[in-house]
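User: I'm putting together notes for a lab meeting next week and I want to include a structural view of one of the chains we've been expressing. I don't have a solved structure, so I'd like a prediction I can at least talk through. The sequence is below, exactly as it appears in our construct file.
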Amino acid sequence: MSSIFQALVIYLALTAGASSVAAVNHQITDGKLMGATGIQVGTSFFDVAFSVESCNHSVAGCGAGNFVGQPINSATAATAASEALRDQVFSGMFDTDLGKTFGCGAGTVYCQVLTPYAINFKNKRFFNYVGFYNAVSESDDYVTNANPSLDRSANMSFVNNSNSSVILAVWSPSNANPDPINPPSPPPIPEPSTYALILAGLGLVVAAARHRQVNAA
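Assistant: Thanks for the context. Below is the predicted structure for the 217-residue chain, given as structure tokens.
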């Protein structure tokens, strides 16, 4: 009985920890990370696909110069999305083996994953973005928005060099969530006192069962 009781305690602890974490599904084709689904950015959930095409070709509204239809359309949102890439998507081998990500060269120092969010107001030929710089060494990973911009019509492969690869993160509301823009609130995590009551009740059940077994003998 004690082993069952211990297993229940472990299960409840793991369940509490898992309930507050978004379930991200990596999209892998031929061993390459092509994107991911179910990424939590703030209180919303998104899917992302990686592209080496131009911003005009890949991102909703970029070609029209207005970003209409693009769910990530501010520097704040793009920064949060880039941080979500760092924390939720690029983990394990995808964080250290750059060649495992579509469009990123294995021999480069950085794989730049750019999240476009607006047309450059000074020169509409360019788009603004926030970049997550994924490095071979995890300690060198960083997210930056220093008002950088790139040509809207340029394919990302043209920007690549021997030091770094560049890909676009193309975001869309997640199909993994029934209401990606206003998702339902996660179920509340029970207070420790609630767990204590549950475990106390289980203890009484176990004690009663033992008492019955003794009387039956």
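A couple of points you could mention at the meeting. The helical segments are 2-18, 55-58, 75-89, 93-96, 192-216. Residues 7-21 have pLDDT under 50 and may be disordered.

User: Perfect, that's what I needed.
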